[in-house]
């Protein structure tokens, strides 16, 4: 696929995964690695980065103008896709995955490729747990909900005490940045931050490493080209978990 120009695709199917999350299946398969993302062009609205939940789908939580416009679309409508971009997850040996909310989406291809042994999944409430059947078919699944309506009553990070981190060569993480920062803190205390792989979400304009809008402090690493997946030791003592930047470059707390 051309790096610079979006390819028009037709939405073939829309799946209501949870009350707030939908999967949009389009009529083109993209050669991708688990954890890579695409730039999604919603005509007349915006172009935004989104992780791939399969070679032919994106799974979306409604937040902001572009995702609201996507949620207003119907099967048969068309969007533009550019990519895939980024490095994705790179795993060997036993792998632990940790996700919160829609963060399970970019981890799903890794699960369905048989590369995840144990998956810790969190959500606000039982109805917002994403892909539980598909994950449970391929990996050992442990869940946590903030309100206790399913699994452990508490945060997904609480589940980390129920597994032996030494058993895993890699810990792949995606979800709200506050949650991911808590995971990194635990890995750092256990002396294994370098085994963590964290998928970052940052504002992007180009997606190909030219504009610099997704550069992170203090290293200047570009989320679109050097990421979106970064090892935990790289993220220590960085902006991660503290702030990001908006379209004008101003900092805002994550």
Task: Characterize the structure shown.
The protein is an alpha/beta fold and 254 residues long. The protein has 5 helices and 17 strands. The strands form 4 sheets. It has a 7-stranded mixed sheet. Strands 1-2-5-4-3-6 form a 6-stranded antiparallel barrel. Helix 2 (108-112) links the parallel strand 7 (95-100) and strand 8 (118-123).
Which structural class best describes the helix and strand composition?
alpha/beta
What does the average pLDDT come to?
95
Estimate percent helicity: 10-25%
Determine the number of helices (DSSP H or I, runs of at least 4 residues).
5
* CATH topology descriptor of the largest domain: Rossmann fold
CATH superfamily of the largest domain: Nucleotide-binding domain of ferredoxin-NADP reductase (FNR) module
**Main sheet makeup:** 7 strands, mixed
Task: Report the radius of gyration as a whole number of Å.
Answer: 17 Å
Shape: globular
Strand content: 25-35%
Ends: how far apart? 33 Å
Give the total of beta strands. 17
Low-pLDDT regions: none
Topology as H/E string?
A: EEEEEHEEHEHEEEHEEEEHEE
What is the CATH architecture descriptor of the largest domain? 3-Layer(aba) Sandwich
Query: What is the CATH top level name of the largest domain?
Result: Alpha Beta
Strand order of the largest sheet: 10-9-8-7-11-12-15
Q: Any idea how many domains?
A: 2
